[in-house]
Amino acid sequence: MNILVTGATGYIGKRLIPFLLNEGHTVICVVRDRLRADKRYIEDENIFVIEGDFLKPETLKNIPKNIDVAYYLIHSMSNSTTDFESLEERCAINFKNCLENTKVKQVIYLSGITNEDELSKHLQSRKNVEEVLASKHYALTIFKAGIIVGSGSSSFEIIRDLVEKLPFMIAPKWLNTKTQPLAVRDVLAFLSRAANNETVFNKSYDVFGPEILTYKEMLLQFAAVRGLKRYILTVPVMTPKLSSYWLYFVTSTSYKLATSLVDSMGIQIVGKPSHINEILNVNPLTYKQAVALAFEKIEQNSIVSSWKDSMVSSGTLRNQLHKYVNVPKFGCFKDYKERPVKDIERTINKIWAIGGNTGWYYGTFLWRIRGYIDKLFGGIGLRRGRTSPTELDAGDALDFWRVIFADKAQKKLLLYAEMRLPGEAWLEFKIEDNMLKQTATFRPRGLWGRLYWYSVLPFHGFIFRGMINKLVEAS
After folding, report:
1. Are strands 397-398 and 333-340 parallel, antiparallel or unpaired?
2. What pTM was estimated for this model as a whole?
3. pLDDT tens digits for range 363-410
């Protein structure tokens, strides 16, 4: 079958595509920015990448007509815009209008469980999208999931941060809210097995794991899997704002995502029973099994996707990497250094492993201090780390940087700063003629930008010099 996947660079989309390819389907991926498309997509003859933005109908003209099934996986937990719901509605309307002009038989939408009279802002938006997507031209299948548990998922990483950093927690009362976590492996099974299955045409199903747990129980079970003893005291006096700050400062989440999560976590998410498990032959894992499986993937360095690489975690970018590929030359301050390279392969591998647990090779404690300062001023800090310890692709998060361009064949890595800055910053590594060329570029914004550059200039001298010296060391 010809299957269209939207949200192809997102957490679920990246994981669903291999499932569909393994089943022999041809996959058409729609991405806002071709630079963010996985390099493997280009190499596979059964994948076609189309650049398009569902907020801009004029960009969708290249979507083919001969589609059998389409997945709608576009949504966001960010609340950075005041008209969030209207943007999601417009996106869904444009998708529907586009698909109604194709031969598509079925649209599959991954939504959220909505069983409360009073819904959070994001769950209400998901419910509205369900209504928008309904059409007489194709069958609509809706799967509503709660907390998704898997390596790299936002819920998994936030719980991991809390459990591994805090032996004792004074936590908000919403930790007593009930939910039904579902392993990401089972989410993918539901989505892939529903394709062209007429039994689920024009149906909606809640999908969930076998246990009803509170968030507190999830934290304690996570700790048990990790062999840790943890103590949690819930208090009734922590306001939503304080709860958001609690998540923001302790975990790797952004403040905007933290507020969205707090908004949702106060609402009970328990699914309505159905026969969908039997219909699609899915036997969901328990929460502990899902956590244990996630750590297997982490230990094998085989995390396919992470919420940190999503633009939801971005400080400034919005799926437009190509706008930042060309580093500006005028009106900028630069720190340029070059060194001869004795072992090109070794240097390339060291560049590709920079940040995260590896650190920055020189003055890493200063980078950490800069991360703490960024966090204090509402930035993302260093806690995002990186998804893979050795591989980088365009769009990946790298501490408080975003990968704009990464190509080992061209021996070039370009990073864009997402920390709080009075301007814009790029960091480029490039090997030409056996020389490593390292360039830090800063385009200031007003007087404060210029003052900032001169205030950090003394540190740049030895930090960047030390870093490039370490990168070119042969041993």
Report:
1. unpaired
2. 0.73
3. 888 888 888 887 777 777 766 777 788 888 888 888 888 888 888 989
Quick one: angle between helices 215-225 and 154-165, nearest 10?
Answer: 70
Distance (Å, rounded) from C-alpha 225 to C-alpha 291?
7
Specify the DSSP class assigned to residue 329: -
Tokens of 63: 């979507």
Q: Output the six-digit token pair for 273.
A: 């029973």
Strands 26-31 and 47-51: parallel
Written as one string, the DSSP assignment of 256-322 is HHHHHHHHHHTS-B-PPP-SHHHHTT--PPPHHHHHHHHHHHHHTT-----GGGSGGG-SS--S-GG
Residue 296 has pLDDT above 60, yes or no: yes
Of 375, 354, 345, 319, give the one whose Cα is nearest residue 427: 354
- Quick one: tokens of 360? 């920055």
Convert the pLDDT of each residue in 182-214 to its tens digit. 999 999 999 999 999 999 999 999 999 999 999
Give residue-wise pLDDT tens across range 135-173. Answer: 999 999 999 998 899 887 777 888 888 888 888 888 777
Choose among 417, 413, 371, 370: nearest CA to 391: 413
Which pLDDT does position 81 carry in this prediction?
47
**Number of alpha carbons in the 13 Å side-chain half-sphere of residue 378:** 4
Q: Which of 308, 132, 164 is nearest to 250 (CA)?
A: 164
More confident residue, 246 or 32: 32
Type of residue at 326: N
- Hunting for tokens 């301007």 — which residue is that? 423
| Per-residue DSSP letter, 359 | B
CA neighbor of 2 nearest in space, from 70, 52, 87: 70
Amino acid at 308: K
- The separation between CA 337 and the C-alpha centre of its own chain, rounded to angstroms, equals 33
Beta strands in 321-373 (DSSP E): 333-340
Residue type, 216: K
- Distances, alpha carbon 80 to alpha carbons 179, 240, 315, 415, in Å: 26, 17, 10, 23
Q: What is the mean pLDDT of residues 82-90?
A: 76
- Residue 253 and residue 380: Cα distance in Å, rounded? 7
Residues in CB range of 366: below 8 A, 6 or more apart? 459, 463
Cβ atoms 360, 367 nearer than 8 A: yes
Query: Is the CB of residue 79 less than 8 Å from the CB of residue 87?
Result: no
What does residue 97 show for φ and ψ, rounded to 5 degrees? -60, -40
Instruction: Quote helix, strand, coil % in the chain, to nearest 5.
Output: 40, 20, 40
Tokens linked to 83:
């008209």
Q: Looking up tokens 């870093």, which residue turns up?
A: 467
The amino acid sitting at 37 is A
Task: Compute the half-sphere exposure of residue 239: CA atoms within 13 Å on the CB side of its CA.
Answer: 2
